[in-house]
Every structure is written in structure tokens, then in C-alpha cells.
């Protein structure tokens, strides 16, 4: 039995060694299982033209695929001609071809793989033909020079991050027939000013237009059964759940919306103020995170939780009024809100999450209500202006005995958080890890 296994292994090695690879006119090919060939890596440079057919040892092959990473890091590749008959472009096929300025995808190509043209930083022109069906994840990510793109009507799916960080992209035409837009599909396309979602789209991933700071118009076409832009609100709303999924700096949230989704306004640099109607009962995590110019926001009265990192790095936010019915402040909710000078924690709040006010450098005073029973780590870490900390009378878990300007865990006599004016009481037996 052992002898048979060894013979089988030897045969396999011979088969691998004799894999049908050959080079013709400087282009390296691999024969695929269907007896066509794919182009594989060979350190290409200059202008390269891929033929539709190639002959090797008397056998004629169709060139149907650009293989995995075939031209990856070919920084001196200046142009590429792809043949009709090509059917797919593999993952990372032209990744980081920094000198490539234009590309025409033949009409026979059905799919463009993961990262196929990502980091082609000088790529300014892409021609996509009818017949293309899918654009893979990160396919054109970080093509900084790309200014416009028209998606063919045959495309059904645009993958995750397909055009993210295309900073000069000003115009995108999405076709009727498109069904799926992946998460982060156009993330940080900073020059994009408007977008229309076709009526055929039935699936949109998270944060598709986050960081699109110039985006002023978002519209969902009439007839879409899953999404809408009711009342010309300049946002994408999931109709059945009344959830606002993606907004922009001109969004006016309709009073019929009940939920604001995760990352809905993430990294919208031009958003300076917004009013959230009282119909909204839930706001997802990071919905307004990284909105660095947000100065004013009105929260709904019935909101009972500030989600994790909801206002993370809202650097221009100076003050905010929290709803009276609020019960919980999530982790990092106001982290790195450098200009936040004052905030009143409502009397029904029971939980303040880890790093909730981390690095709020302008915050001067804080009062912990008697209702609070749980405070996470590093809540006031690096709040360098904080000079007054008090815990309301009646709190059964924490106290600020002797007006000490600190938060002490009563049962353990541990000082958890202090400030520049803290006087440590003699009854304290331990000081927490991040107290100061």
C-alpha cells in the first residue's frame, strides 16, 4: 500500500512539473482545464497586446482569461490591449500598474475580479461594454485619476469597495438592470456630486457612499420596491423598515423614518448640522462618526440609547442636548470630540460605555446622575480641561465623597476617574488604572 501511495505521489509531481505553460511573443500562458489559455505573470512592461488566439506546438488555443495577478506590480506597463473573446479578468490581475492610463474591456468579458485594477493610480479612462455582468470587490479601488464611469446595462452586481477612494470620480451612471451594490462601493469618492439608484436595485450594502463629502443629491428611481427617497430627502431609505441607510450633507430626514442605519452619515465632511425627527427611535453605531464639521445636531425625544461611536471624531461639535429618556451611552460615543465643552447626562442614564468621552479635550465639568450603575474604562481619559466631576446624591454604586472632584466606586473605595482638581479622600484604598 505504501508503495502505491509513493508511486501516485510521484505521478502527481510529474503532472505538476509538466503543467502546460508556454511563452509566445513575450506573453506567458497557462493551458486551462477546458483547453483554452489564460495569461499569467511574466514581468511585463511597455505596450502589451494580448491576441485572441495563440498557437503552440501546432495547437491553437483561445485566450479566455487574464489570470490571477498576471500583471500585478507591472509599474512600467504603459498600455494593454485585450482581445475580443476574453471572458474574465482574474483577481488582482492589474493591481498597482501605476503607468496604465486607459483600459477598454472587451464586450465578451463577463466578470472583473477582486482588486483587478486597484491602485492603478494614473488610470483616467475605463471603457466597459455591454455583456459585462459583475464588477468584483475592490475592482477599481484607489484609481485616483478616474473621473467618470458608465456601468453597462448588463451589469447585475457591483462589489464591495469596487470604486472606493476614486477621489476624482465626479460622475457615475448606474443602469437599470443593476441589482446589487456592495458595501463601501463608492466610499470616499470625494468629488462625486450626485447619484441615482435604479429601480432594479434590490440590495445595497453598508455605507456605500460614506466619505463622499461633495455628494449633494441622492435619488432612488421611481418604481423601486425596496428603497426610496421619499419627499426628495436626498437619502436612501429602506421602504419596509423605514430605515435611512445612506445620507449626504443636504439630507432632510423625513418624519416617517424610524431608524437611522449604521454608518448612514459616516465621514460626511460637509455635514454641519442636522435635525433628527421625533419619529426616530434608533440610531445605528457610527452613524455620524468622522463628521468633522458637524456643529449642531438635534436628537429625537424618544431616543433611549446613544450607540457605540455614534459621534466619534465629530471634532467641531461644541455642545449637544441629550434626550431626557436616554438610558445608555455607548462605547466611544463622543470619543475625540475635541471641541465638546459641555454636556448634561440625563437622569435616567444607567450605563456609560468604555471611552465614551475619551479625549474630549474641551470638556470642563461633568455630573454623573444617581441612576448610573455602570461606567466603562477610560471614560474621561485625556479630558485635559476637566476641572469638576461630581456624582449625584443617591447613587448607590459611585460617589464623589468630600467634594473630591472624582468618581469613586463606593463598595471598593476605588477612585476610578479624577481630574486636575481632584483631592483624593483618605478613605480611598485604590486608584484605578486609567484614573488620571
Secondary structure layout:
Layout: H1 2-17, E1 21-24, E2 27-31, E3 37-40, E4 46-49, E5 53-56, E6 59-66, E7 77-81, E8 88-89, E9 102-104, E10 111-112, E11 125-127, E12 134-135, E13 148-150, E14 157-158, E15 171-173, E16 180-181, E17 194-197, E18 203-204, E19 217-220, E20 227-228, E21 235-238, E22 243-247, E23 259-260, E24 273-275, E25 282-283, E26 296-298, E27 305-306, E28 319-320, E29 328-329, E30 342-343, E31 351-352, E32 365-368, E33 374-375, E34 388-391, E35 398-399, E36 406-409, E37 414-418, E38 430-431
Number of helices: 1
* Structural class by SSE content: mainly beta
> What's the rounded overall pLDDT mean?
94
What profile does the largest beta sheet have? 11 strands, mixed
Shape from CA axes?
A: elongated
Number of strands: 38
| Rg calculated over all Cα atoms | 29 Å
Unreliable stretches: 1-18
Q: Helix amount, in percent? A: under 10%
How much of the sequence is in beta strands? Answer: 25-35%
Describe the structure.
This protein has 436 residues and is mainly β. Helices cover 4% and strands 28% of the residues. It contains 1 helix and 38 strands. The chain starts with a helix and ends in a 5-residue tail after the last strand.
Gist of the model:
With 436 residues, the protein is mainly beta. The protein has one helix and 38 strands.
Amino acid at each position: 500500500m505504501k508503495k502505491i501511495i509513493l508511486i501516485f505521489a510521484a505521478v502527481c509531481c510529474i503532472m505538476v512539473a509538466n503543467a502546460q505553460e508556454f511563452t509566445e511573443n513575450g506573453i506567458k500562458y497557462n493551458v486551462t482545464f477546458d483547453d483554452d489559455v489564460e495569461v499569467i505573470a511574466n514581468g511585463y512592461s511597455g505596450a502589451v497586446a494580448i491576441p485572441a488566439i495563440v498557437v503552440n506546438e501546432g495547437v491553437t488555443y483561445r485566450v479566455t482569461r487574464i489570470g490571477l495577478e498576471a500583471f500585478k506590480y507591472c509599474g512600467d506597463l504603459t498600455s494593454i490591449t485585450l482581445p475580443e473573446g476574453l471572458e474574465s479578468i482574474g483577481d488582482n490581475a492589474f493591481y498597482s500598474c501605476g503607468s496604465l492610463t486607459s483600459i477598454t474591456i472587451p464586450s465578451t468579458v463577463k466578470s472583473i475580479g477582486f482588486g483587478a485594477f486597484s491602485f492603478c493610480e494614473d488610470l483616467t479612462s475605463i471603457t466597459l461594454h455591454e455583456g459585462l455582468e459583475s464588477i468584483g470587490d475592490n475592482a477599481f479601488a484607489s484609481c485616483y485619476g478616474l473621473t467618470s464611469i458608465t456601468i453597462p446595462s448588463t451589469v447585475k452586481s457591483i462589489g464591495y469597495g469596487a470604486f472606493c477612494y476614486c477621489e476624482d470620480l465626479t460622475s457615475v451612471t448606474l443602469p437599470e438592470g443593476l441589482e446589487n451594490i456592495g458595501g463601501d462601493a463608492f466610499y470616499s469618492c470625494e468629488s462625486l456630486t450626485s447619484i441615482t439608484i435604479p429601480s432594479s436595485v434590490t440590495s445595497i450594502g453598508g455605507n456605500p457612499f460614506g466619505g463622499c463629502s461633495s455628494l449633494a443629491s441622492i435619488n432612488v428611481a421611481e418604481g423601486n420596491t425596496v428603497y426610496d427617497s421619499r419627499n426628495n430627502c436626498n437619502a436612501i431609505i429602506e421602504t419596509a423598515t423605514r430605515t435611512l441607510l445612506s445620507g449626504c450633507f443636504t439630507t432632510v430626514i423625513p418624519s416617517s423614518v424610524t431608524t437611522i442605519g449604521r454608518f448612514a452619515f459616516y465621514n460626511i465632511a460637509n455635514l454641519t448640522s442636522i435635525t433628527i425627527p421625533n419619529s426616530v427611535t434608533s440610531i445605528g453605531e457610527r452613524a455620524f462618526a468622522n463628521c468633522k464639521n458637524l456643529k449642531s445636531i438635534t436628537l429625537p425625544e424618544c431616543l433611549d440609547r446613544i450607540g457605540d461611536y455614534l459621534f466619534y471624531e465629530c471634532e467641531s461639535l461644541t455642545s449637544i442636548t441629550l434626550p431626557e429618556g436616554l438610558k445608555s451611552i455607548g462605547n466611544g460615543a463622543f470619543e475625540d470630540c475635541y471641541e465638546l465643552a459641555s454636556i448634561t447626562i440625563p437622569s435616567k442614564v444607567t450605563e456609560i460605555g468604555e471611552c465614551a468621552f475619551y479625549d474630549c479635550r474641551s470638556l470642563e465639568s461633568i455630573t454623573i446622575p444617581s441612576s448610573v450603575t455602570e461606567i466603562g474604562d477610560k471614560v474621561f481619559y485625556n479630558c485635559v480641561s476637566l476641572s469638576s466631576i461630581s456624582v449625584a446624591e443617591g447613587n448607590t454604586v459611585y460617589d464623589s465623597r468630600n467634594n473630591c472632584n472624582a468618581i469613586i466606586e463606593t463598595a471598593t473605595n476605588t477612585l476610578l476617574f479624577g481630574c486636575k482638581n481632584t483631592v483624593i479622600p483618605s478613605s480611598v484604598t485604590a486608584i484605578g488604572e486609567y484614573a488620571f
